[in-house]
């Protein structure tokens, strides 16, 4: 990624240490929040949220109903895909199922098959925009901030995050509703810092000598274009001007903090992954590896959000065959990520949560894809200090409502939960004891807590 493009991305995401009044936070009555500092401290939780934009099919983690589905489907999954082999727990072997089984067998992951919204079903709501917003805000109301913005506001109000906390929230995906803000100014240090898997960042103070150098260097031709050396000449000049001409306060502090962040991120970038950990060669693995390195080296960072850029989107209305390789790459990467967490002894404190806006209709349509559905899988990994992993949770049935409309739904009498329970789970591990105040209803944490 080019530096100028990354700066644009970072500013769009609100990573504005240099712009302390860049955006605003949602109005939130922190006095209504019951906060347990004991839970917060005991968990020492850090979270990587992987959001599968586009609405990933749930079939990779659940083909237990496939024979019945194909009885009704326009096209046969067994005929179209190059293998639909079920694993022992009914995962799709060719679509990441082998890696899922290994994670489950090791007690590293819980696969929830019945994240289902009756509220959306009743409202006939299966649109990308509104479902993404609802899941990232953790509420079906139109008002309110994003989940991460709410957690930031509460942790600040409860005194566990402050101006000295370094990079408490990080985005590796750019702008998202997780950080949605509303009417009350949010301090700059609570805004998400934007990085990418190469740890390029807008606070970088090194400047290529071919662009900025002293007159003496020009005279002796020591700063030719392409020179591999670096000097912080421009940064030094800007720091001097800032400290000389600005009053005490936010601007001076921001430039000082910029240098601190630059050096800090460089140190993380230079840290190494244990030799025994081997990530697969795909475009997603460097992202999750970088996220783990950051959390390992900075206990101040609480939440990192990232999409699945590098694998592709999940809105598989047609030509769904690539879904198989995407899921294989994703879960092979996640298996390496869990091995990484174990190697650095962080599988008790760091958790990974994988979900999206919704799942898919399981009719393989005339274009060999799936249309929007209302049931998805939630994958929860790590966090063993506060999560009790349960293997596979939830059973589904086929509802063949009519032509081209075949749904998976929770089996009557079995465990299921609304998507807003994911928000409640996140709130609870960060010490918030009454998440209903934030979700606007009775959506208890999923039963892993």
Describe the secondary structure blueprint for this structure:
Blueprint: H1 3-12, E1 24-25, H2 37-43, E2 46-52, H3 66-72, H4 77-80, H5 97-105, E3 109-116, H6 118-123, H7 128-137, H8 147-157, E4 169-171, E5 184-185, E6 193-194, E7 207-208, H9 215-219, E8 230-231, H10 233-245, H11 250-269, H12 285-297, E9 303-306, H13 322-343, E10 350-356, E11 375-382, E12 392-393, E13 396-402, E14 405-410, H14 420-429, H15 436-439
Parallel strand pairs: 2-9, 2-10, 3-12, 4-6, 4-9
Antiparallel strand pairs: 1-5, 3-11, 7-8, 10-11, 13-14
Report on this structure.
The chain has helices at 3-12, 37-43, 66-72, 77-80, 97-105, 118-123, 128-137, 147-157, 215-219, 233-245, 250-269, 285-297, 322-343, 420-429, 436-439, and strands spanning 24-25, 46-52, 109-116, 169-171, 184-185, 193-194, 207-208, 230-231, 303-306, 350-356, 375-382, 392-393, 396-402, 405-410. It contains 15 helices and 14 strands. Mean pLDDT is 87; it is low at 1-26, 207-212 and 225-231. The strands form four sheets. An eight-stranded mixed sheet has the order 6-4-9-2-10-11-3-12. The chain has a two-stranded antiparallel sheet with strand order 1-5. Strands 7-8 form a two-stranded antiparallel ribbon. It has 449 residues and is of the alpha/beta class. Strand 13 (396-402) and strand 14 (405-410) form a beta hairpin. 46% of the residues are buried. Helix 5 (97-105) runs parallel beside helix 13 (322-343). It starts with a helix and ends in a 10-residue tail after the last helix. Helix content is 34%, strand content 14%.
């Amino acid at each position: 990624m080019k530096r100028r493009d990354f700066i644009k991305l970072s500013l769009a995401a609100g990573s504005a240490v240099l712009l302390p009044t860049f955006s605003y936070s949602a109005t939130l009555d922190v006095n209504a929040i019951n906060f347990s500092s004991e839970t917060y401290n005991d968990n020492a939780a850090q979270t990587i949220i992987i959001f599968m934009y586009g609405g990933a099919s749930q079939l990779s983690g659940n083909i237990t109903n496939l024979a019945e589905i194909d009885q009704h489907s326009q096209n046969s999954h067994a005929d179209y895909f190059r293998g639909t082999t079920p694993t022992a727990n009914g995962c799709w072997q060719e679509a990441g199922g082998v890696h899922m089984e290994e994670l489950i067998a090791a007690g590293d992951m819980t696969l929830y098959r019945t994240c289902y919204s009756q509220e959306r079903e009743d409202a006939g709501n299966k649109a990308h925009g509104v479902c993404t917003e609802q899941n990232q805000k953790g509420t079906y109301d139109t008002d309110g901030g994003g989940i991460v913005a709410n957690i930031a506001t509460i942790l600040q109000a409860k005194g566990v995050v402050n101006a000295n906390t370094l990079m408490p929230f990080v985005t590796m995906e750019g702008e998202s509703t997780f950080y949605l803000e509303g009417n009350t100014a949010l301090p700059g240090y609570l805004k998400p810092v934007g990085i990418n898997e190469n740890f390029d960042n807008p606070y970088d103070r090194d400047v290529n000598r071919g662009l900025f150098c002293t007159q003496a260097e020009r005279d002796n031709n020591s700063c030719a274009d392409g020179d591999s050396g670096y000097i912080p000449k421009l940064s030094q000049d800007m720091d001097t001007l800032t400290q000389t001409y600005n009053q005490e306060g936010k601007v001076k502090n921001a430039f000082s903090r910029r240098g601190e962040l630059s050096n800090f991120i460089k140190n993380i970038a230079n840290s190494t992954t244990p030799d025994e950990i081997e990530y697969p060669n795909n475009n997603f693995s460097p992202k999750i590896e970088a996220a783990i390195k950051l959390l390992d080296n900075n206990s101040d960072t609480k939440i990192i959000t990232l999409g699945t850029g590098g694998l592709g989107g999940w809105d598989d209305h047609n030509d769904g065959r690539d879904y198989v390789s995407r899921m294989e790459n994703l879960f092979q990467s996640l298996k390496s990520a869990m091995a990484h967490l174990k190697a650095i002894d962080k599988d008790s404190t760091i958790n990974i949560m994988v979900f999206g806006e919704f799942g898919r209709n399981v009719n393989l349509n005339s274009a060999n894809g799936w249309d929007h559905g209302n049931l998805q899988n939630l994958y929860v990994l790590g966090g063993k200090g506060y999560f009790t992993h349960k293997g596979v949770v939830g059973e589904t049935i086929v509802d063949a409502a009519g032509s081209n409309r075949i749904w998976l739904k929770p089996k009557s009498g079995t465990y299921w939960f609304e998507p807003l329970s994911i928000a409640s789970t996140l709130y609870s591990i960060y010490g918030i004891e009454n998440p209903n105040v934030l979700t606007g209803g009775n959506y208890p944490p999923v039963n892993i807590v």
